[in-house]
Amino acid sequence: MGDPKTILVTGGSGLVGKAIQKVTQDEKRPDETWIFVGSKDANLCDFQATKQLFEKHKPTHVIHLAAMVGGLFHNMSHNLDFLVPWLFLS
C-alpha cells in the first residue's frame, strides 16, 4: 500500500465524472479517498469558494472535469472567458 491519496474530482456530477465514480466504487482501493463535487458544491470561478473547497477536502490529487456546458452556439453568443486560479495550499 502507498501513501494515502485524496482525489478531488471537479465536474463530478457530469457524464465523465459519473463514469469515474462508478469505476472507483467498483474497484475500491483502501489508500484512496475519492471526492466528487459539482457546481452546487462550489463556484470554481470564485477564488474564495475554490480555496474553501480545497481547504475543506485537502486533496493530494485533482481531476478537473468542470466545464460550462451549453453547446457551441451558446458559448459563442455569450463570449465566455474562463479563469483557472492556481492554489498553493500547504
List the SSEs and their pairings.
Elements: E1 5-10, H1 15-26, E2 32-37, H2 47-57, E3 61-64, H3 72-78
Parallel strand pairs: 1-2, 1-3
Explain what this protein looks like in three dimensions.
This is NAD-dependent epimerase/dehydratase domain-containing protein. It comes from Zophobas morio. Residues 7-83 form the NAD-dependent epimerase/dehydratase domain. One of its GO terms (molecular function) is GDP-L-fucose synthase activity. The protein is of the alpha/beta class. It has one domain. The chain has helices spanning 15-26, 47-57, 72-78, and strands at 5-10, 32-37, 61-64. The protein has a three-stranded parallel sheet with strand order 2-1-3, covered by helices on one side. The longest helix has 12 residues, at 15-26.
Any descriptors?
GDP-L-fucose synthase activity; flat; single chain; three-stranded parallel sheet; 3 strands; alpha/beta; Epimerase_deHydtase; 3 helices; 90 residues
Number of strands: 3
Fraction of residues in H or I helices: 25-40%
Terminus-to-terminus distance: 24 Å
- When the domains are counted, the total is 1
Main sheet properties: 3 strands, parallel
Q: How many H/I helices?
A: 3
Structural class given helices, strands, pairing?
A: alpha/beta
Give the SSE string. EHEHEH
Overall, the morphology is flat
Q: Per DSSP, what share of the residues sits in E-state strands of 2 or more residues?
A: 15-25%
- The overall average pLDDT, rounded, is 84
Strand order of the biggest β-sheet? 2-1-3
Uncertain segments are 85-90
Protein name: NAD-dependent epimerase/dehydratase domain-containing protein
InterPro entries: Epimerase_deHydtase, NAD(P)-bd_dom_sf
GO molecular function, one term: GDP-L-fucose synthase activity
